[in-house]
Amino acid sequence: MTEPKQAHLKKEVAPFEKTDLKSSVRQLVNTLVPLVLLWYAAYYSLSISYWLTAPLVLLTSGFVIRTFIIFHDCCHGSFFKSKRANDIVGTITGVLTLVPYQQWKNSHAIHHATSSNLDKRGVGDIWIMTVEEYLSASFIRRILYRAYRNPIVMFGLGPIAVFLVQYRFNRKGAKRKEKLNTYLMNVLIVGLYALMCWAIGWQSFLLVQGPVFFLSGLLGIWLFYVQHQFEDSYFENEDEWSYVKAAVDGSSFYKLPKALQWITGNIGYHHVHHLSPKVPNYLLEEAHNATPPLHKATTINIRESLASLKFHLWDENGKKFVSFKGLKKHLRLAEAAAQKLKPARPSLQGK
Description:
Blueprint: H1 3-13, H2 21-45, H3 50-76, H4 83-97, H5 101-114, E1 129-130, H6 131-136, H7 139-149, H8 151-165, H9 176-200, H10 202-226, H11 243-250, E2 253-254, H12 258-263, H13 270-275, H14 284-289, E3 299-300, H15 302-305, E4 313-315, E5 320-322, H16 324-341
Parallel strand pairs: 1-4, 2-3
Antiparallel strand pairs: 4-5
Helix pairs in contact: 2-3, 3-4, 3-5, 3-10, 4-9, 5-9, 8-10, 9-10
């Protein structure tokens, strides 16, 4: 894609960079009201049977994800026209999802500005090593990377490590406004949880909020992970990196069933979101449908997305992900190709 075409593509999406107050308020109502009602229903069901509580907990977790999408839009300033309104709603929804508003707003902006840039990894993204980096890494670093990429660690320990621990602390180099917001949100979260424990008892609170927290955290990490981890994704060094190509080629179109698309706030249209973060979530599908070049983005469904679990290392030469298991085969093929390119040894005739 040439630079003029890239600029034109951004212009095509620009008309959808508009917030609609009615749509935003409607989404707040149809997200937060069901969230509260479902949480209460899950609590009430404890007195009947936990077999009834379990599906209610799963539904509640889905609405926590939808709440996070509102938080996400507020971070981009795309949910309301008013910055103040975005900050207030972003802070409230951040408390409900355990994510510090200012901290995540700043780190996520860096993620958008550097996504798929091999020279600017490390802030707001998943840890990715190239084949070359992995082969030259120390034994300890390899073990740490393998552990990090293990699904049990990433999706089992990940929600606790990220949402419960990491987000309670300020980032290194954070400015005063960001730090104060993190402190404020920690106080609000502790206050809310203490109030709930006082009102219904800590055992009942944990029986509902524990699985809701874990499932929503797991699903949140999965959605973030899967939409950049597909076999022929896009990664380049700074001198060859393109913002538009990173958005369209480095982010997938995660085609979900309509019910899941709704509960996840259209975040499956991740290529559109990365191209233009100012498009509110409720206009992402419309922007995609109205822009034919975006239809060429890599489309994956739920079954196909499971393959991303085996993509561990980025091969800069082959421009694709490879697995740890497939690394040896990959190296053998590379070595065989190199052998073929070697010039033939000179003949020893006449000696």
